[in-house]
Amino acid sequence: MGTVRRHAFIERSADVVWELVGDPARLHEWFPITSTRVEGKKRWINLPSGLSFEEDIVTLDHDLRRFQYSIVNNPIVKSHLGTVDVIPDGPDRCIVIYSTDLDPEVMALMIAGAAGAGLARLQEIFGSGEPGKGEGR
Question: How many structural domains is the chain composed of?
Answer without folding.
Answer: 1
